[in-house]
Design a protein that fits this description.
Helix content: 10-25%
Order of helices and strands: HEEEEEEEEEE
Distance between the termini: 38 Å
Structural class: mainly beta
Mean pLDDT: 81
Low-confidence stretches: 2-43
Largest sheet: 8 strands, antiparallel
Radius of gyration: 17 Å
Shape: globular
Length: about 190
């Protein structure tokens, strides 16, 4: 029994590592599972370029300063909860929970956290409300960019871009977008 569990774990690790070995730089797609609203989804970008929307404002007085470390208390992806994060960006904005149908097909992704105001097409200056229908400019997951979405909820907050190593092991995740201030705690 122990040998079967070990062999299965080793096979899963091998497949995960093989799936992440892609030479397309920041286009690598993470085969770790993403968790949204209790459902798991693949296709989260393992590491991003660090680029942010031009109109996104840097936080003037973030609780967690760029360069500091914090503990992630969110489980957007497997291995995220409890991971030590390095803060690489802090921005004041409105973060939205959205449900969207991927442009690549498949089932709707429910309650995805987070898409920020600046990643929504033609969002303007007004905060969007629950039930508003929008198009996404975010490219966090395969099939997200250009997808139709519905706003489920919003939170005016500081969002953070973070680097972290999953608690489940594996390669360091760089420039993960986004973690809200309430999803971090002091180290």
């Amino acid at each position: 029994m122990k040998n079967n569990i070990f062999a299965t774990s080793l096979l899963a690790l091998s497949l995960t590592l093989a799936a992440c070995s892609n030479d397309s730089g920041d286009k690598n797609m993470d085969k770790h599972e993403m968790k949204d609203g209790g459902m798991n989804h693949e296709g989260m970008k393992h590491s991003g370029s660090g680029e942010v929307p031009k109109d996104l404002k840097k936080a003037e007085n973030p609780k967690y300063q760029v360069g500091s470390q914090a503990i992630i208390k969110a489980d957007h992806m497997e291995g995220m909860d409890g991971a030590k994060a390095k803060i690489v960006g802090a921005f004041d904005t409105t973060a939205y929970v959205v449900t969207y149908t991927p442009t690549t097909g498949g089932k709707p992704v429910k309650n995805h956290k987070w898409v920020i105001h600046e990643e929504i097409q033609n969002a303007g200056n007004k905060e969007l409300k629950q039930g508003d229908k929008v198009k996404l400019n975010a490219d966090h997951m395969k099939g997200m960019k250009g997808a139709s979405a519905v706003i489920e909820s919003s939170e005016k907050t500081t969002v953070y871009m973070v680097d972290y190593t999953p608690t489940t092991g594996g390669e360091k995740v760089k420039n993960h977008k986004w973690v809200t201030e309430s999803e971090l705690q002091p180290e």
